[in-house]
Design a protein that fits this description.
The chain is mainly alpha-helical and 163 residues long. The protein is 60% helix and 11% strand. It contains six helices and three strands. Strands 1-3-2 form a three-stranded antiparallel β-sheet. Helix 4 packs antiparallel against helix 6 and helix 5 (105-117) crosses helix 6. The chain is globular and about 55 Å long. The two termini are 25 Å apart.
Length: 163
């Protein structure tokens, strides 16, 4: 019965928290409105999520979020340094194909979004079979290191979260 009342509890909570951030006011009324909005969106979209993803390992989710935030901060500094002090002839832009061990479309979407949110990288395409991700890197003198870094820092953790 609770599954019918709140078909997507994480979505509901995420919408409520995003609503609070957008309103820039953490009042009880705004939180309740965010929950109502989250419940409505959750109920309206439930038909399109018949096999919703199951996430596990809350500590790993927190660790993943902290690592992503740290990587975004570091990448901002690196990209700013490249833009301000770098020379065009020193720039080594390239596309990197990352073979995926992830199978969940939601996990692949989170990985692609993480890569795109990190300055200097962009998820350009996902293979039709979902087994590879094409990434553009602003500066990647060693594409193999980029590939290994993505697999060890992000994909490994996402595999534990979306098992």
């Amino acid at each position: 019965m609770p599954g019918r009342l709140v078909p997507h509890p994480l979505l509901t909570l995420a919408v409520a928290l995003v609503w609070l951030m957008l309103m820039n006011e953490a009042s009880p009324g705004q939180f309740v409105f965010g929950l109502v909005l989250g419940l409505a969106l959750s109920a309206l979209t439930a038909a399109w999520w018949p096999a919703r993803p199951r996430v596990h390992n809350l500590p790993m989710m927190i660790e993943y979020a902290l690592i992503v935030l740290w990587d975004i901060l570091v990448a901002n500094v690196v990209v700013a340094r490249i833009v301000v002090f770098g020379r065009n002839e020193d720039l080594r832009s390239c596309f990197v194909t990352v073979p995926l061990d992830l199978r969940s479309p939601e996990a692949i979407t989170v990985l692609a979004g993480t890569i795109t949110m990190t300055p200097g990288t962009l998820s350009a395409d996902v293979a039709a079979d979902g087994r590879a991700l094409l990434i553009h890197c602003l500066h990647a003198p060693d594409p193999d290191a980029v590939r290994a870094d993505i697999k060890s820092r992000y994909e490994r953790r996402l595999m534990e979260i979306f098992r």
